[in-house]
Design a protein that fits this description.
Blueprint: H1 7-25, E1 29-32, E2 43-48, E3 54-60, E4 67-71, H2 76-85, E5 89-90, E6 103-108, E7 112-117, H3 127-133, E8 136-140, E9 143-147, H4 150-162, H5 169-176, H6 180-192, H7 196-203, H8 215-222, H9 228-238, H10 242-253, H11 257-264, H12 270-294
Parallel strand pairs: 4-7
Antiparallel strand pairs: 1-4, 2-3, 5-6, 6-7, 8-9
C-alpha cells in the first residue's frame, strides 16, 4: 500500500506547483506562512535517545492546512486564469471570504486548498512592491519560491496573529522571542507599510488606536469575539468610503453562494441560499434582541 504524504510534505509540493503556474502566467507571487516561514522563526525541540543523551535539535513546523500566496494585485487575474487551466476550482470570492476582503480560496482535487491573497490585512495596498524588492527565496517542492524577507515575515505573522484571537503562537515566534534590533526593524517596516494598527493589535498596544476606523475590526478578531453583530458593526466603521459601505451592506443582505458551496460541497440552489440568508438574519436579530434585553433597551 502506498503511504500518503504528510500534510507538511503535500503543502510544500502544492507551493511548488503553484509557483510553476505563476511562472507560466507571468505573475509575481510571494509564498507566505506555512512551510514558507523562515527557519529562524520556527519552534524547535531537542531529541534525546533512550538513555537521555542529546541526539539532535528538531524543527517544529508551523501548523497550516493550506498553501498561502500573496500575489501582486495587478497579476491576480492572470494567475487565477492559469490556475483554472490546471484544474484549480474557485471556492470563494475576495469580497465575501472575510471581513477584510483580502483573499479567496481555490481548490484542487489532488492537492487540496490554497488561499490566494490580493493583499494582506493591515498592509497598505502598495505594500507588495516593497515586499517584492526585499524578497528572498526558498525551495518548496523542489521549486525555488519567492518569500518575503525575514523582517517582513515577522510583520506578516504578527498581522495574522492579530486576526486569529488571543494568545496566538505567531506572536511568540515573530515578536516575543525577537531581539530589540529585530523588533525595531519590524516596527520601522510597519510604519513604512501602514501596518501600525495591526502590529499594535498583536503586541497589546491597540488602545493607542481607538480613533482609527479599523479599531473595532482589529479588536473584534484579536479578542476572538464570537458576535456576528459586533463584526458587522466593525466592518461598517472600517468602511471609509461610500463604495466600501455599500459593499458591507451588500455582504450583509445577500449570503454569498460560493461560501455556501464550500460548506455544502455542491452548488447551492436558490432555495438553499435564501434559507441561509434568512438564518443569518434570524441569528443577528436574535442577538440584537438578547442584547437589548440584557442592557435595558440599549443595543
Amino acid at each position: 500500500m502506498t503511504k500518503e504524504p504528510s500534510l507538511h510534505v503535500r503543502l510544500r509540493l502544492t507551493h511548488g506547483v503553484l509557483q510553476r503556474i505563476a511562472d507560466k502566467a507571468g505573475a509575481d507571487v510571494l509564498h507566505v506562512k506555512g512551510p514558507a516561514v523562515a527557519r529562524e522563526l520556527l519552534d524547535t525541540r531537542d531529541i534525546h535517545d533512550a538513555e537521555g543523551s542529546f541526539e539532535r535539535t528538531e524543527i517544529i513546523h508551523r501548523n497550516s492546512s493550506d498553501a498561502d500566496l500573496l500575489i501582486r494585485p495587478e497579476h491576480v487575474h492572470r494567475f487565477l486564469d492559469g490556475a483554472s487551466r490546471h484544474g484549480w476550482i474557485r471556492k470563494t470570492s475576495f469580497s465575501t471570504s472575510s471581513a477584510f476582503g483580502h483573499a479567496m480560496n481555490i481548490f484542487h482535487p489532488t492537492l487540496g486548498n490554497a488561499d490566494v491573497h490580493r493583499r494582506f490585512p493591515g498592509l497598505a495596498p502598495e505594500a507588495f512592491d516593497e515586499l517584492w524588492r526585499a524578497r528572498t527565496s526558498t525551495d518548496l517542492g523542489h521549486v525555488p519560491c519567492p518569500t518575503p524577507s525575514v523582517t517582513a515575515q515577522r510583520l506578516l505573522l504578527l498581522l495574522h496573529s492579530a486576526r486569529s484571537g488571543p494568545h496566538h503562537p505567531d506572536t511568540g515566534r515573530a515578536w516575543d522571542r525577537a531581539t530589540a534590533d529585530e523588533r525595531t526593524g519590524v516596527l520601522a517596516l510597519a510604519r513604512h507599510l501602514g501596518a501600525e494598527i495591526g502590529v499594535a493589535a498583536a503586541v497589546g498596544d491597540l488602545e493607542a488606536f481607538r480613533d482609527h476606523p479599523e479599531y473595532l475590526l482589529w479588536k473584534h478578531f484579536r479578542d476572538g469575539n464570537p458576535s456576528r453583530l459586533d463584526e458587522w458593526r466593525a466592518r461598517w466603521r472600517a468602511a471609509t468610503t461610500v463604495g466600501k459601505k455599500a459593499a458591507v451592506v451588500q455582504g450583509l443582505l445577500f449570503f454569498d453562494p460560493s461560501l455556501l458551496e464550500a460548506e455544502l460541497g455542491h452548488a447551492p440552489s436558490h432555495r438553499e441560499v435564501a434559507q441561509r440568508t434568512l438564518l443569518r438574519w434570524r441569528r443577528l436579530l436574535g442577538e440584537l434582541a438578547a442584547r437589548r434585553t440584557s442592557t435595558g433597551g440599549r443595543a
